[in-house]
Amino acid sequence: MHTETTATSSRPIETDTVVIGAGAVGMFQVFQLGLQGLHCHVVDALPHLGGQCSELYPDKPIYDIPGIKACTGQELIDRLREQMEPFAPTLHLGQQVQTLEQQDDGRWLLATSTGTQLLAKAVVIAAGVGSFVPKTLKIDGIEALIDRNVHYHPANLATLTLQGQHVLVHGGDELAVQAALDTLACTPASVTLIHRRDVFTAPEALLAQLQIYKDTGRIRVVAAQPQSLLTTDDQLSSVEIVLPDGSSESLPVQQWLVFQGISPKLGPVAQWGLELVKKQLPVDTSTFVTEAPGIYAVGDINIYPGKRKLLLCGFHEATLAGFSIAEYLTDKPVLLQYTTTSTRLHALLGVVHTEK
Fold first, then answer.
1. How much is the average pLDDT of 171-185?
2. Residue 41 CB neighbours (<10 A)
């Protein structure tokens, strides 16, 4: 798989299909389109694959995946990633599709929040309950500092300038604790971890590591809430925090890593001119096409009589959508083939046969 995180050209990237949403159903959609010989570009607001499975229940067991007695949400995503690897989708992660417009030739032009433009013959919306976006802080002046001094759920600390900086890590879950520990490898001037309570939701092993660095003074842990910020020459210089006893303290801060959780929002989908019923896209259940030709919807984002919001149903929808898209693009019926016997599908999957 190839990952693109920023726009690489002012010209649109032309492709067979775009899948909007990299959750479990979106990933299986890539696999089904790959079986039809169609290459995919995948766009997701999160900086990683997995959608709800990774964000809401990565460690919780799932019991209704066919042929698998039980697996965690993250284990399922890992298996789906391995399954779609032969088709080498291009991933555009950490960005959101802002606009979706049909062109004169029938293709669809998509533009993302980072400036990436994609020109696709067909688009599958697998956006689940919406884009998962970080919860933001409501502090005067913070918006001007985003991506410069303030970073919401940064996926890779190595891309940030943390060396010699006073770093504030804000949050109470595993991601926040891990980020505080990982920041030490960047040789910062100081690391402070704040949370509204002096209790963190993280594995015991991780909390034990945090305690060691807390005891040695390498990480300061404070129960507090941020109240305001101060800038110097348009750069973050300090953050005023409020302690549990109501007193306040000014922390020197140059880089602020915020892990306040993720929440789903329908986002720009509502602005694309597609028919919506209760914030969902009605589809034809024989093809899973919406009312717009070339636009399909699978998973929790769609609605139809008898709809059940289950992963199993989403996988079924992605399968039928894959066949439908192939027929839409070729204007020919698609011959049903089986992965157990089809040499064509084996070639697409990279199956190697050994002589007996």
1. 94
2. 25
CA dist., res. 137 & res. 110, Å (int): 29
User: What is the distance, to the nearest Å, from the Cα of residue 188 to the centroid of all Cα atoms in its chain?
Assistant: 28
197: three-class secondary structure by DSSP: coil
Taken in order 59, 62, 65, 68, the sign of the CA dihedral is positive
Q: What is the pTM of this model?
A: 0.74
Let me know: does 314 contact 300? Beta carbons within 8 Å: yes
Which has the closest alpha carbon to 315: 300, 294, 335?
A: 300
Query: d(Cα 215, Cα 221) in Å, to the nearest integer?
Result: 10
Whole-Å CA distances, 195 to 133, 313, 320 = 20, 39, 46
From the list 161, 216, 219, the residue with the least C-alpha distance to 186 is 161
- The CA-atom distances, in angstroms, between 5 and each of 106, 202, 356 are 27, 29, 45
Measured CA distances, 37 to 23, 25, 287, 341 (Å): 21, 18, 18, 17
221, containing H or E segment:
strand 220-223
Closest alpha carbon to 255 in 96, 148, 341, 333? 148
- Tokens 């979106």, residue located: 26
**pLDDT value at 72 more than 60:** yes
Residue 184: is its pLDDT beyond 80? Answer: yes
Task: Write phi, then psi, for 150 (nearest 5 degrees).
Answer: -115, 130
User: Which region among 51-55, 138-142, 270-274, 339-343 has the lowest average model confidence (pLDDT)?
Assistant: 51-55
**Which residue type, as a one-letter code, is found at position 277?**
V
Q: What is the dihedral of CA 181, 187, 188, 193, to 10 degrees?
A: 10
- Residue 254, pLDDT above cutoff 60: yes
| Number of other CB atoms surrounding residue 3 within 10 Å | 14
Tell me what pLDDT residue 54 has.
85
- Classify residue 215 by burial, with Cβ atoms within 10 Å: 0-12, 13-18, 19+: exposed
